[in-house]
Each structure stands twice: as structure tokens, then as C-alpha cells.
Write a structure and sequence with these properties.
about 280 residues; alpha/beta; Aminopeptidase; 2 domains; 6-stranded mixed sheet
Length: about 280
């Protein structure tokens, strides 16, 4: 067979094929350019090109700040780990477990009201080393204070359960730093809310006290939710629904404090503990 002469002129048929191929290339290039232009033009341009109605962009809703927005609140669950705190007279339940439960519930409620919450513990631990160079309790309190201070807290709530030698004592009790008007104002709001929400048989007034956690230079309160040494109140505190109500009362107290009119008194300065001795 003779080899085809590559120099032989095209036939009519081969010319037509070449034209069709070239036209296909042009169509592909046009489609590609259109796609690139539409991609850069945005969704509405694509909708228009395809004959569909334009889509109106709906902005994301702006979060509505709660009444506690801008506040950093430290919630301290008292005791923990080796330090069980008070013990239920009937059940033997340690205070530390109930403190943590109420603290977690309180923190959740405060966050829904817009507050930023700093917690000293979220599990059953003590904030101290196994064999510290100082007393375990002192190191634990120092570390709680450091978490609160470094977290920039504007407010401190320390959650506890009470006990007393006599079994008849009952009712929630709120303490503030002795001689601190700012703490007294906060504690009064909390005490009133605890009475209104929990309706205890004994209606107590907020009291001044000497507690480490209340001496950090910000409005602070230590909330004793009830007496584990009282049989009836212990049963209430062991009930999850009652602990939720206690948390709601604490959150309500903070809201009342935040809504107080007029200028609030300045808290007492933080206590200088740099010279604390070893235990």
C-alpha cells in the first residue's frame, strides 16, 4: 500500500470536520468565560442569568445582651476533694457535692442573663498539692483567689451549705465582708431573693463575717444555702429541684443587685496576703 502524501490538499469533507471542531472549541471557551464571570458576580447575578428571582441577603440576628452583660462573675463552689465540708446529719452527704451542683446551676443561669462566669472548680477537686509547703487549705484558698483575680471578676459568689451543733437551726444565710458596704449591698439583695424564692421557715438577715474569699477587693458574698444539720432542710438540699430553686434564687439576687438605682459604694481594698506564714 502506498503511504499517504501528507502534503495532499484537504478534501471538502475533511474541511467541514475541521470547521466543526473549531466551532466546538469556541463554544467551550465561551461557556468557561461565562462561568468565571458569574462566579465573580455573586449569587444574584447567577439567579438573573438563569431567569430566577434574586435572593435578598438576610443579616444574622444581633444577639440581645442580657441585663448582666459586661459583668464577670466568679462562682466558687466551696470545699472539694479531700475537704468535704459539712456533712448531712442523716444522709452523710458531704457539702462539697451539693456546693458544686448549685454552683454549676447558678453559673448556667447567670450566663443566660449575659454574664461571663469564672468558676474556681467544676469537678470534685481541692485546689492544692498533695504535700504543699504550706497548709493545704491555705494553698487551696490562694489558688481560688488567683483564679478569681486573674479572671477579672467584678463580683464573687461563694456557694456553701451550713451546719450547726443544734439541729433546729435552718434557713439560707448570706455573709459579706465585715465593714464592706459594697458587699453588704450585694448580700442584702441575695438574702432577700433567697427568702422570696425558697420561703424558708427561718428568715435570716445578711451578716458580716471574716472569710478569705470575701477579701479580694470586689463585691462578694458567701451563700449558705441551708443547714445540713437540720433533718428537714437536709432533705430539701438533697433534692435536685430544690437545688435548682436555690440557684435561681442566687441568680435572682444578682439581678436585683445589678438593677439597684444610684451609685454603688466602692468595695474595700483587697487584703495584702503576701506575708502569709507557712502552716
Amino acid at each position: 500500500m502506498k503511504m499517504a502524501d501528507w502534503r495532499k490538499p484537504w478534501t471538502a469533507a475533511s474541511s467541514a470536520d475541521r470547521v466543526r471542531a473549531f466551532a466546538g472549541v469556541l463554544l467551550c471557551a465561551s461557556a468557561l468565560c461565562t462561568a468565571v464571570l458569574l462566579a465573580g458576580a455573586g449569587q444574584n447575578a447567577v439567579q438573573t442569568f438563569l431567569g430566577l428571582p434574586a435572593v435578598t441577603a438576610v443579616p444574622a440576628p444581633t444577639p440581645v445582651p442580657g441585663p448582666l452583660a459586661g459583668l464577670v462573675i466568679a462562682v466558687d463552689a466551696g470545699h472539694g476533694g479531700y475537704d468535704g465540708g459539712a456533712v448531712g446529719r442523716v444522709s452523710g452527704t458531704p457539702e462539697k457535692e451539693l456546693n458544686l451542683d448549685v454552683a454549676l446551676r447558678t453559673a448556667a443561669l447567670l450566663r443566660t442573663e449575659g454574664a461571663e462566669v469564672v468558676m474556681t472548680r467544676t469537678e470534685d477537686i481541692a485546689l492544692c498539692d498533695e504535700n504543699p509547703p504550706i497548709r493545704k487549705k491555705l494553698q487551696d484558698m490562694q489558688r481560688r483567689a488567683a483564679i478569681i483575680t486573674q479572671g477579672g471578676a467584678d463580683l464573687v459568689l461563694s456557694i456553701h451549705m451550713n451546719e450547726y451543733a443544734g439541729r433546729s437551726e435552718s434557713g439560707p444565710q448570706v455573709f459579706y465582708r465585715e465593714g464592706c458596704p459594697a458587699g453588704r449591698l450585694l448580700a442584702g439583695a441575695l438574702q432577700g431573693a433567697m427568702i422570696d424564692v425558697l420561703q424558708p421557715r427561718t428568715k435570716r438577715a445578711a451578716l458580716g463575717g471574716d472569710y478569705y474569699i470575701l477579701t479580694l477587693g470586689v463585691p462578694s458574698a458567701l451563700v449558705e444555702c441551708g443547714f445540713l444539720s437540720n433533718k428537714e432542710e437536709e432533705a430539701l438540699l438533697l433534692d435536685a429541684q430544690y437545688r435548682q430553686r436555690a440557684a435561681e434564687a442566687i441568680a435572682q439576687g444578682v439581678l436585683r443587685w445589678a438593677a439597684l438605682p444610684g451609685e454603688r459604694p466602692a468595695p474595700l481594698p483587697a487584703v495584702d496576703r503576701s506575708a502569709e506564714e507557712k502552716g
